[in-house]
């Protein structure tokens, strides 16, 4: 299950640009963790009593023996469903936006990756380990609560197994929106403040998570405990979503290995917190877990990713600031006025509808999966210099044709940049010149 999670997070990081990685990763993982809440309801409150009644009626088992057999039997159901879904994913999905890795390797489009080298690079990255600990303090908390919540409501409030499982499922059901919201707000912070915005939101989530856990432990009424559990679950999931909004930036060349190490932090955290519940009372275990989670927020100060500003030090790389500047300057401009400059006409030939950011020298292409650097237009500009006036006139005419047929795209399949379009006038001009 842990391996599936890591592969899922790497997959979504590959399929979506880093600017929306927080939302994409959080929604995929959050709806995956939602299975925890569904399992509590379906397995504990529906299938368990059903199978227990069947075994108790059709066999000579005692009530306790029937309960044991029912738990063992119903575990087969999710195993079979998971196996079927795994086969379906393999048969129907692509590895990345450009296709499957096996075919790309045969065509020489990608190189072989050394697993050991990738893992060593990830291990040596100083930013991996603060995020490892922080993820232990959010996903580790979730795993611990998933295991302990039903028993907590049984022991502290005298609930039956079925009702305790249903109450505990509230914690998992928050994944329906909370983890996705955490990733979305991480992306919002990135849009306004860069990496500093992501890190600040990460710290806020962890502080509020720890504070709410303590309030949950101090609540002695069942209704209040359920409400506080739902609230602290929201911040637990939000912190998880925020963490994996940062992961794709740490070292893009080894994102898979880094995602795996940080994901393992969640399991390690669950083991450590599990020992707390073994040796301490519920109250002291929850309070201690809350203080540890809140304290881990300080580690965001030590996450300093190359080319990005940290919370208190560092600054964005010049190329990143330039990209942000281009995003602000080159808003969609089609239809906003006349064009007297031929180069302006070429640069603004529907780029915004294709996901381009175009400047005089650089076009940055975002095809919803990868950021690809397109060759600059210096060569074309030098070829036009000798016939500048004639070319300007031709481009003006072709620009009008392009406006009339703006729904028609020319896909550059041979270059592998699906979705990249060029003005028809430019192509026809080249044909006339030849």
Describe this protein with a few key phrases:
3% strand, three-stranded antiparallel sheet, mainly alpha, 434 residues, single chain, 20 helices, globular
Beta content:
under 5%
Number of strands: 3
What is the radius of gyration computed over CA atoms, rounded to a whole number of angstroms?
Answer: 27 Å
Order of helices and strands: HHHHHHHHHHHHHHHHHEEEHHH
Number of helices, where a helix is a run of at least 4 consecutive DSSP H or I residues: 20
Mean pLDDT level: 76
| Fraction of helical residues | 55-70%
Low-confidence stretches: 331-389, 407-434
Shape: globular
Biggest sheet: strands side by side, in what order?
1-2-3
The computed structural class is: mainly alpha
For the largest beta-sheet, the strand count, sense and barrel status come to: 3 strands, antiparallel
Describe this structure in words.
The protein is mainly alpha-helical. It has helices spanning 2-15, 21-58, 63-74, 76-92, 101-106, 115-124, 128-136, 139-157, 161-173, 178-193, 195-218, 222-250, 255-279, 282-295, 318-329, 342-347, 351-354, 378-384, 388-404, 424-433; strands at residues 356-358, 363-366, 371-374. Strands 1-2-3 form a 3-stranded antiparallel beta sheet. Strand 2 and strand 3 (371-374) form a beta hairpin. Helix 10 runs antiparallel to helix 11 (195-218). The longest helix has 38 residues, at 21-58. It starts with a helix and ends with a helix.
């Amino acid at each position: 299950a842990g391996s599936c999670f890591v592969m899922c997070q790497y997959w979504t990081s590959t399929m979506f640009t880093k600017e929306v990685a927080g939302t994409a990763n959080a929604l995929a993982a959050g709806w995956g963790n939602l299975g925890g809440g569904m399992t509590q309801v379906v397995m504990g409150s529906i299938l368990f009593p059903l199978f227990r009644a069947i075994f108790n009626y059709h066999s000579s088992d005692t009530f306790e023996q029937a309960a044991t057999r029912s738990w063992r039997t119903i575990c087969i159901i999710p195993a079979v469903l998971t196996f079927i879904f795994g086969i379906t994913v393999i048969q129907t999905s692509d590895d990345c936006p450009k296709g499957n890795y096996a075919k790309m390797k045969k065509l020489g489009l990608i190189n072989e990756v050394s697993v050991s080298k990738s893992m060593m690079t990830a291990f040596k990255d100083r930013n991996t380990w603060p995020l490892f600990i922080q993820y232990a303090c959010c996903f580790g908390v979730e795993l611990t609560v998933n295991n302990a919540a039903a028993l907590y409501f049984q022991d502290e409030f005298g609930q039956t197994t079925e009702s305790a499982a249903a109450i505990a499922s509230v914690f998992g059901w928050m994944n329906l929106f909370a983890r996705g919201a955490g990733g979305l707000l991480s992306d919002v912070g990135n849009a306004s403040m860069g990496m500093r915005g992501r890190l600040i939101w990460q710290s806020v989530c962890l502080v509020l998570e720890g504070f709410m856990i303590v309030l949950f432990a101090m609540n002695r009424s069942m209704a209040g405990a359920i409400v506080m559990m739902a609230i602290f679950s929201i911040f637990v999931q939000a912190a998880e979503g925020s963490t994996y909004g940062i992961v794709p930036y740490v070292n893009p060349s080894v994102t898979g290995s880094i995602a795996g190490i940080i994901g393992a932090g969640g399991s390690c955290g669950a083991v450590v917190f599990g020992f707390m519940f073994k040796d301490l009372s519920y109250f002291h275990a929850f309070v201690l877990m809350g203080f540890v989670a809140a304290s881990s927020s300080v580690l965001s100060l030590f996450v300093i990713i190359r080319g990005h500003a940290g919370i208190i030090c560092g600054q964005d790389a010049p190329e990143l600031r330039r990209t942000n500047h281009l995003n602000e300057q080159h808003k969609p401009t089609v239809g906003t006025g006349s064009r007297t400059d031929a180069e302006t006409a070429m640069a603004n030939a529907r780029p915004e509808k294709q996901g381009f950011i175009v400047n005089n020298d650089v076009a940055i292409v975002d095809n919803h999966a990868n950021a690809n650097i397109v060759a600059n237009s210096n060569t074309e500009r030098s070829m036009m210099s000798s016939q500048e006036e004639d070319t300007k006139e031709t481009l003006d005419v072709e620009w009008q044709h392009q406006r009339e047929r703006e729904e028609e795209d020319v896909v550059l399949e041979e270059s592998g940049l699906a979705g990249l379009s060029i003005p028809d006038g430019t192509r026809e001009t080249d044909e006339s010149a030849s």
